[in-house]
Design brief:
Radius of gyration of chain B: 15 Å
Radius of gyration of chain A: 22 Å
Distance between the termini of chain A: 39 Å
CATH architecture of the largest domain in chain A: 3-Layer(aba) Sandwich
Number of helices of chain A: 11
CATH topology of chain B: Sufe protein. Chain: A
Order of helices and strands of chain A: EHHEHEHEHEHEEEHEEHEEHHEH
Shape of chain A: globular
CATH topology of the largest domain in chain A: Aspartate Aminotransferase, domain 2
Largest interface: A-B, 27 and 26 residues
Low-confidence stretches of chain B: 134-142
Structural class of chain A: alpha/beta
Oligomer: heterodimer
Helix content of chain B: 40-55%
Strand content of chain A: 5-15%
Order of helices and strands of chain B: HEEEHHHHHH
Helix content of chain A: 25-40%
Number of strands of chain A: 13
Number of domains of chain B: 1
CATH architecture of chain B: Alpha-Beta Complex
Strand content of chain B: 15-25%
Mean pLDDT of chain B: 88
CATH class of the largest domain in chain A: Alpha Beta
Strand order of the largest sheet of chain A: 2-8-7-6-5-3-4
Mean pLDDT of chain A: 94
Low-confidence stretches of chain A: 327-334
Structural class of chain B: alpha+beta
Number of strands of chain B: 3
CATH class of chain B: Alpha Beta
């Protein structure tokens, strides 16, 4: 009989909400809004209407204007467009960027590429709780700094950076601020009218929407200019060319609309479930420790280090759980999570850390079962290990 | 990160239910112990061989900290070494076993660590023999 898997990896991706899937299906077949949204005929106009409604839905979740939302293929492309777009457009003004060592790979690798292209990048080290303090950004600013890119919520440990305070600093210095909000949209209230954020990246599939769709918020007042990544067609204000994927966009719009309606109820429920997960885990394994700030964290993510055992074994032993590990035991030289290493965790603790991420469809019974499995397997592996 | 499909059924079953894990009771005669590896490098193996008077390995125990391949290889190796001569145990190629099991080449280091632990244990044979010649119990067993 096939083993029932308990899915606790919502930070990696979420299932599409059935209500979202239903809306998407209405954009695929002859009877639906399948036409090219750029076409002038009636079916095209209908599709365009659906796209613009979705744009408004995405904007509404974060307090933006619809015209400030550019659809992309996902947060990775949004990060690329924001960072390369600003860096290239404003390179006459300066060629220095600031980011942190614990950003998503989409930001890290984009900044590394810019370094290879001759830009200078300051890589901020987080504090022991995994936070980038506003003062760190302030101290790193230079006269030639054009962009700061700091994530809102860290995807591995769930810690929340104070982007309001960071934005006040960057705005005062006339430096653009990009925020990757893939892990925070729909989980934390975001009102871009009150934040000095110039660019913000979103993902559809982290919020019960489809994969392959994301968005970039580009502030209109004061206006941010970007060099596009692609140069053909002129779609999305010339910033992201290519025929719009109506079904994906409609799916993302519906997902963001649902998140807007349910955020106030869903976030406290998820926080309570996450707290119960930690309470029960800690009771079963008193040696376990939380990675990242104990309270300044998003509702759905709990990253725990399990001392004394090897990470890959724990992950495999807990095969009934779909969770993420902080390590990759692929060779004699293990590769612990760069995020956990940046926090100062040693190789063993980083390697034996597990990220549990819960979401809309997680039940209390699943959390209880997960704790039982982890507890049993942890003690089994600990009993196998030599002392020391 | 490996997926469970990277491991054969044999490896998987020995990881899930390792055989001969643990240690011998204190005072068990003829036990030779050797360790290898470090936690920093992701694996530690402590192998214990119970050697009889005729130089045969009567039984094995081990403790292991490491990835699923390391645990499964310890379990399988302990089964293979039991009943054989100590010299064969010392010469046994866990690397070849890993290859037979289809383990990825990256897991070679796990096999080498186990070989090192076994050879460290076997290497104590002569010194134990010399140091315990006066011990009636130990020499009788050996």
């Amino acid at each position: 009989m096939k083993q029932k898997i308990i899915y606790l990896d919502y930070a990696a991706t979420t299932p599409v909400d059935p209500r979202v899937a239903e809306k998407m299906c209405q954009c695929l077949t002859c009877e639906g809004m399948f036409a090219n949204p750029a076409s002038a005929h009636a079916p095209g106009r209908a599709a365009r209407g659906a796209v613009e409604r979705a744009r408004s839905q995405v904007a509404a979740l974060v307090g933006a204007e619809a015209g400030e939302i550019i659809f992309t293929s996902g947060a990775t492309e949004s990060d690329n467009l924001a960072i390369k777009g600003v860096a290239h457009f404003y390179q006459q003004k300066g060629r220095h960027l600031i980011t942190s060592r614990i950003e998503h790979k989409a930001v890290l690798d984009t900044c590394k590429q810019l370094e290879r292209d001759g830009f200078q990048v300051t890589w901020l080290k987080p504090d022991v709780d995994g936070l980038i303090q506003p003062s760190m950004v302030e101290q790193a600013l230079r006269p030639d700094t054009v962009l700061v890119s700091i994530m809102h919520v860290n995807n591995e440990i769930g810690t929340i950076n104070d982007i309001a305070a960071i934005g006040r600093i960057t705005r005062a210095k006339g430096v653009y601020l990009h925020v990757d909000a893939a892990q925070s949209a729909g989980k934390l209230p975001i009102d871009l009218k009150d934040l000095h954020v110039d660019l913000m990246s979103f993902s559809g599939h982290k919020l019960y929407g489809p994969k392959g769709i994301g968005a970039l918020y580009v502030r209109s007042q004061p206006r941010v200019q970007l060099d596009p990544l692609m140069h053909v067609g002129g779609h999305e204000h010339g910033l992201r060319s290519g025929t719009l994927a109506t079904h994906q966009i409609v799916g993302m719009g519906e997902a963001f609309e649902l998140a807007r309606q349910e955020l106030a109820n869903e976030a406290p429920q998820l926080s309570a479930l996450r707290d119960e997960l930690w309470r029960a885990l800690h009771a079963a394994i008193p040696e376990a420790v939380v990675n990242g700030h104990p309270t300044q964290r998003v509702c759905g993510i709990l990253n725990v280090a399990f001392p004394g055992i090897e990470g890959e074994s724990l992950l495999f032993a807990c095969g009934a759980l779909a969770v993420s590990s902080g390590s990759a035991c692929t060779s004699a030289d293990r590769e612990p999570s760069f995020v956990l290493r940046a926090l100062g965790r040693d190789d063993q603790l980083a390697g034996s850390s597990i990220r549990f991420s819960i979401g809309r469809f997680t039940t209390a019974a699943e959390v209880e079962a997960a704790v039982r499995i982890v507890g049993e397997e942890y003690h089994r592996l600990l009993d196998l290990a030599p002392a020391g | 990160m490996f997926s469970d499909t990277d491991y054969s059924t044999t490896v998987w079953s020995h990881f899930r239910a390792p055989k001969n894990a643990g240690e011998f009771h204190a005072g068990t005669p003829g036990v030779l112990s050797g360790t290898a590896g470090t936690r920093k490098h992701g694996r530690v193996v402590a192998f214990h061989l119970q050697v009889m008077a005729d130089g045969r390995v009567a039984d094995c125990r081990y403790r292991v900290y490491g990835c699923p391949a390391t645990i499964a290889l310890c379990s399988l190796t302990s089964e293979i070494l039991k009943g054989g001569p100590l010299a064969a145990a010392a010469a046994y190629s866990v690397v070849a076993l890993a290859e037979q099991l289809g383990l990825p080449a990256e897991k070679r280091a796990a096999a080498i660590t186990i070989e090192d632990a076994i050879r460290n244990a076997a290497g104590r044979y002569n010194s134990h023999l010399r140091s315990t010649q006066a011990s009636t119990e130990f020499t009788r067993e050996l």
